[in-house]
Design a protein that fits this description.
Ribosomal Protein L25, Chain P; alpha/beta; elongated; 161 residues; Alpha/beta knot; three-stranded parallel β-sheet
């Protein structure tokens, strides 16, 4: 099942340019076809494509939104990036698949990596959300210092070393 991330406004859904390109060029979707959508906030939709081109696809929502059941916890994962960014990308993907709600990257005293491409991590996260058939897109935070992050997160803090 293919799922697309869309901006929902009343009964109209607009796919991003990347999603539109994938819909038209890769999957060869045509006007009149039904597609599955999520809004990133926990809602699933079924929509019918009305306007189809590789830059922008517009669909009309034909089903009422189904809500992904909320969990009774909030999981925020903070990690210091490793030297090899492919490990961080793998971690982001797996964290989404197990249900993390927020992901933060922290700069520590001995951190070797001082730059994280949040846009790339965001794309990996969105791909993992669609692949694992979820409707919530976790929040991705930019690289920040350890102390301020530690003070700003939840009451229960677990640190693994």
């Amino acid at each position: 099942m293919n799922i697309f991330i869309a901006k929902i406004s009343n009964t109209t859904a607009e796919l991003t340019s990347e999603e539109s390109w994938h819909c038209v060029k890769v999957l060869r979707c045509k006007a009149g076809e039904k597609i599955n959508l999520i809004d990133g906030n926990g809602n699933f939709y079924i929509a019918e494509l009305k306007e189809v081109n590789e830059k922008k696809c517009i669909a009309e929502i034909i089903s009422t939104a189904q809500k992904q059941p909320p969990r009774n916890y909030y999981l925020h994962l903070a990690i210091a990036p490793t030297k090899h960014i492919d490990r961080m990308e793998w971690l982001a993907e797996k964290a989404v698949e197990i249900g993390v709600d927020e992901l933060s990257f922290i700069r520590c005293k001995n951190s070797e990596r001082t730059v994280i491409k949040i846009e790339r991590i965001q794309k990996i996260v969105e791909s993992a959300v669609k692949q694992s058939l979820q409707a919530f897109i976790p929040k991705i935070n930019p690289l920040s210092d350890f102390e301020p992050l530690l003070k700003s997160v939840a009451d229960l803090k677990l640190i693994a070393n």
